[in-house]
């Protein structure tokens, strides 16, 4: 059998690298809750209420607050799998030619996870506006509206990201726009789709951010306020019955969670 020398860790690494390089928004999410994962697990995320401010100067006494906590659940309920034929695993493995047989598979897994994240952001974020965006000026005004909503919600200034659809990005970069370029991203690594900095946001043009009838759309988010837990849980091989070839299959298990709704501000024009 050709799979006698199949090395799971080698194939996992070969999948993981292009999987990560195909991501857009997931790298910006809060991943501190990742650990040993299994489908159906639930990660409990606890937050403590903020103590009240007391006027000590006038009373010279203090009231001891009874703190309470709130719990959110990040459910790991998504499983994406791919399976593809390889002629033969041993030959491919010995030749070191992992990229041709893993690049597209990894990209498909990454795109599926990104789509799930965008769906979560749309469904569980807060609307900063729904007006039609038909001109560069209106696109810029939408960014301003998202920024204002985040400031009023006391969202931290750091780690702010703005995902824009290709149609939205084209308006921001069009000839009629006052904004013909973005500020450089600085020393941080450049992610997929990053156009630069604008009004405190790292702007990411996301090909999977679609909206009704291809209307321009944008989502502002504070990275630490969006949870993502996931990992490629299994990579395994087997022998095909009707071909002189092996199959390789992989399973990506993950979950997403908007931890603070006001830290995700959407501008999705009504249909």
Task: Explain what this protein looks like in three dimensions.
The chain has 271 residues and is of the alpha+beta class. The chain has one domain. The chain has helices at residues 8-21, 56-59, 89-95, 98-124, 136-152, 166-173; strands spanning 42-48, 69-75, 78-86, 126-129, 160-164, 194-198, 201-205, 218-222, 226-239, 246-258, 264-267. The chain is globular.
Strand order of the largest sheet: 4-11-8-5-7-6
Q: From the alpha-carbon coordinates, what is the Rg to the nearest angstrom?
A: 23 Å
Residue-averaged pLDDT, rounded? 83
The strand count comes to 11
**In terms of per-residue confidence, which ranges show pLDDT below 50 for 5 or more consecutive residues?**
none
Q: Terminal Cα separation, in Å?
A: 56 Å
Strand content range: 25-35%
Overall spatial form? globular
Described by its quaternary structure, the protein is single chain
Helical percent range?
25-40%
- Major sheet description: 6 strands, mixed
Structure annotation, total helices: 6
Topology pattern, helix = H, strand = E: HEHEEHHEHEHEEEEEE
**What structural category do the secondary elements indicate?**
alpha+beta
Q: What is the total number of structural domains?
A: 1
């Amino acid at each position: 059998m050709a799979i006698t020398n199949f090395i799971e860790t080698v194939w996992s690494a070969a999948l993981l690298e292009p999987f990560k390089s195909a991501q857009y928004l997931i790298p910006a999410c809060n991943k501190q809750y990742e650990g040993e994962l299994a489908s159906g697990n639930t990660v409990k995320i606890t937050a403590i209420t903020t103590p009240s401010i007391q006027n000590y100067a006038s009373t010279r006494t203090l009231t001891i607050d009874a703190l309470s906590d709130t719990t959110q659940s990040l459910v790991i309920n998504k499983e994406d799998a791919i399976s593809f034929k390889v002629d033969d695993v041993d030959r491919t493995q010995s030749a070191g030619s992992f990229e041709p047989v893993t690049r597209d598979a990894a990209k498909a897994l990454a795109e599926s996870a990104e789509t799930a994240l965008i769906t979560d952001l749309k469904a569980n974020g807060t609307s900063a506006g729904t007006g039609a965006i038909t001109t560069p000026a209106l696109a810029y005004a939408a960014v301003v509206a998202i920024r204002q909503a985040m400031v009023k919600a006391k969202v931290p200034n750091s780690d702010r990201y703005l995902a824009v659809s290709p149609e939205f990005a084209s308006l921001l970069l069009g000839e009629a726009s006052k904004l013909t370029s973005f500020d450089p991203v600085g020393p941080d690594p450049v992610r997929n789709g990053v156009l630069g900095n604008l009004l405190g946001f790292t702007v990411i043009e996301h090909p999977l951010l679609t909206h009704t009838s291809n209307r321009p759309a944008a989502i502002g988010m504070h990275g630490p306020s969006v949870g993502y837990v996931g990992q490629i849980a299994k990579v395994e091989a087997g022998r095909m019955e009707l071909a002189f070839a092996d199959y390789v299959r992989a399973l990506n298990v993950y979950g997403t969670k908007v931890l603070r709704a006001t830290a995700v501000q959407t501008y999705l024009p009504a249909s």
